[in-house]
Amino acid sequence: MERVKMAEAESLETAAEHERILREIESTDTACIGPTLRSVYDGEEHGRFMEKLETRIRNHDREIEKMCNFHYQGFVDSITELLKVRGEAQKLKNQVTDTNRKLQHEGKELVIAMEELKQCRLQQRNISATVDKLMLCLPVLEMYSKLREQMKTKRHYPALKTLEHLEHTYLPQVSHYRFCKVMVDNIPKLREEIKDVSMSDLKDFLESIRKHSDKIGETAMKQAQQQRNLDNIILQQPRIGSKRKSKKEAYTIFDTEIESTSPKSEQDSGILDVEDEEDDEEVPGAQDLVDFSPVYRCLHIYSVLGARETFENYYRKQRRKQARLVLQPPSNMHETLDGYRKYFNQIVGFFVVEDHILHTTQGLVNRAYIDELWEMALSKTIAALRTHSSYCSDPNLVLDLKNLIVLFADTLQVYGFPVNQLFDMLLEIRDQYSETLLKKWSGIFRNILDSDNYSPIPVTSEEMYKKVIGQFPFQDAELEKQPFPKKFPFSEFVPKVYNQIKEFIYACLKFSEDLHLSSTEVDDMIRKSTNLLLTRTLSNSLQNVIKRKNIGLTELVQIIINTTHLEKSCKYLEEFITNITNVLPETVHTTKLYGTTTFKDARHAAEEEIYTNLNQKIDQFLQLADYDWMTGDLGSKASDYLVDLIAFLRSTFAVFTHLPGKVAQTACMSACKHLATSLMQLLLEAEVRQLTLGALQQFNLDVRECEQFARSGPVPGFQEDTLQLAFIDLRQLLDLFIQWDWSTYLADYGQPTCKYLRVNPVTALTLLEKMKDTSRKNNMFAQFRKNERDKQKLIDTVAKQLRGLISSHHS
Predict the structure, then answer these.
(1) Angle, vertex CA 699, rays to CA 694 and CA 703, nearest 5
(2) CA 190 to CA 148: how far, in whole Å?
(3) Count of beta carbons in the 10 Å neighbourhood of residue 27
(4) Which of 256, 501, 517, 613 has its CA 20 to 30 A from that of 640?
């Protein structure tokens, strides 16, 4: 039952659904009926739906037939009316056809004219459209042509700007044209081309400034020299000259030139040609020689292209490489000043360019980068100068090098680079300069001393006298009163040496100029160098002359006189240094000149050499002594060799009149002592094994001749018998043996009032032994003679007592 109810319910729902679909088909447009029919086919009651559809169609057909039957009479009437109208329509058609034929005939020309007008209008429209399109394309083509022209004339930065306008403003308006697509495709290539060309220009610029760095540096150093000369003139006289342009103004000028769009500013000239100016004309500014436009253009181009950092790194890397090349000195730089000058010019040129780049660009180089380069340059430059300057042996070259270094430092200081280390290094070179000066003056002094005649300077006129006085500070009232011709006490090397010392002081002063030293430091430097000259160079030169083998007593005497006068002139040298440095000698820590000590040492060396020389001459005469120690004859006169020796001594001491009294007295005393000692050695030497009383008498005559010479006072200033004391040992020894006064000697030995106080028991025993041996050999039969036996016993007794004295003295 329920199943029947359910089937009925489903049947009712299906019938309602079919009715809805049929209403939808009737009311819906044919194009949209598809979904409706699909819902029918999707269902399961397709057959029942078709039946309902057939029923609905039949219903509509019956309604149509009813409607047609209702209107049929009206339809017949309408057909009748239409048949009547057809006749009229045919007439109208004929009239229209006729009218049309006439119209066609009459309007044929008009049609042709209208066709022509149509074509004209079409062409006009096409032309107008073409003009409009061309008006859009022409600016693009013009910009592209301008771009090509700028590329051709190497105006790369304007070309890049043109390319930007072309890409962002003009090409988007005509982007649908094929030629525009070609242009768009070429834009990256053009950018790379501009980038490459600008980089090529930069490389040419870098290569150009590398080659012309010395020219740039030379110009900068000339400017610095001119400024320094101008400053010196301003210090000496009122300021009347024109002011030098400041560096800031110079940079402003450069910025103006860079911003100029004239063709000249676009030329990659790198280094401009500058003719050599005359000395009296203004030297062009160092940056005026350089056209920096390639750097600026390349920087702007890379900045626009977003590759500024790449450009900065490349520029700095290349300039570092160039800096290393510039700082590498040539191996022969030390040979000439031009080698140093070219080296400095290149360094100055390099840093002038970098300094200008620093101040005219924003960030291409910075202060830290410049400082790093300068620190490297400073260390390498100082190392190179230390190495190469050590090879310089010419003081003039060292002085020129110093002036060049000062100019180099002053030039770079103008551009803000710290140069204190260079001035510190100059103080090191100052010591080397002093050494080269000392070597040079060593040769000068050697030539002066070698060429001197060691004779007093003769003058025959007032003019000659004043000339010598002008060269050397000498005052002697007695000499001034003497008539011409007359002689100065010193030889020519005195004024020459004095003037050379002053020249040396001037040379030291030259080096101290422009070193920014105080007067005290300059004074101290000059005094220390002068002391080295006096104590080492001049002293060694004098010592070498004094120690020469062929030096004569006359030369030695003159050297003593000369050094005495040079010693007196030291105070004038002190005044000379004080005048040129304006530092008073009383100033604290002022170094004193050691000239007095130097000349005293030289004089003492000469005195010692005189003493040595005299002793050598005495020894030469003593070598001629030929005593017959076995003679029995008593002589009547002194030996010939000794007479000649005394004559030599007299003539020699006569030359000592100009020497200081003590020197002559010391020389005379030294000669007499040496003579007495040599005679004593001659008497006691081991080769003389025996001697007779006759030989001793002859020796006594020679000693008396020496004593006579001493008493004659060969050199004034000795007290009575002072000089004779040199022979007192010989005199007492000879008196003891000749007078045979042994009893007195032995009795008074050791007492201060002893007559033979100067006789040494050892000496007496030695001489006695030689006489004892002689007595034994010459008196073969002495034992048979009572007197001889007694004498022999006495000699033995005396010898025994002498040995006792000697042994007791030793104990």
Answers:
(1) 145
(2) 10
(3) 7
(4) 613
Are 56 and 15 contacting, i.e. CB atoms less than 8 angstroms apart? no
Amino acid at 251: Y
Q: What is the largest CA-CA distance in the chain?
A: 234
- pLDDT at res. 596: 76
Query: From the CB of residue 147, how many other CB atoms can be counted at a distance below 10 Å?
Result: 23
Q: Kindly report, as residue ranges, where domains of CATH 1.20.58.670 are found in the chain.
A: 624-810
Band (pLDDT 50/70/90 cuts) for residue 496 is very high
Contacts of 679 (CB under 8 A, 6+ apart): 622, 699, 702, 703, 706, 730
Distance CA 31, CA 17 (A): 21
589: left (phi over 0), alpha (psi -120 to 50) or beta: left
| Cβ-Cβ contacts under 8 Å for 781 (sequence gap 6 or more) | none
Which of 607, 617, 626 minimizes the C-alpha distance to 649? 617
Instruction: Tell me how crowded residue 83 is: count the other CB atoms within 10 A of its CB.
Output: 8
CATH 3.30.1490.110 fits 624-810, yes or no: no
Q: So what's the pLDDT on residue 255?
A: 40
- Per-residue pLDDT tens over the stretch 351-386: 888 888 888 887 788 888 888 888 888 888 888 888
Checking 791-799 for CB contacts under 8 A at 24+ apart, the result is 794/742, 795/768, 795/771, 796/772, 798/742, 798/746, 798/768, 799/765, 799/768, 799/769, 799/772
As beta bridge partners, residue 486 has 459
Segment among 109-123, 188-202, 749-763, 770-784 with least mean pLDDT: 770-784
pLDDT at 568 over 90: no
pLDDT (average), residues 283-312: 76
Q: For residues 811 and 221, what is the distance between their CA atoms, to the nearest angstrom?
A: 88
Cβ-contact 284, 274 below 8 angstroms: yes
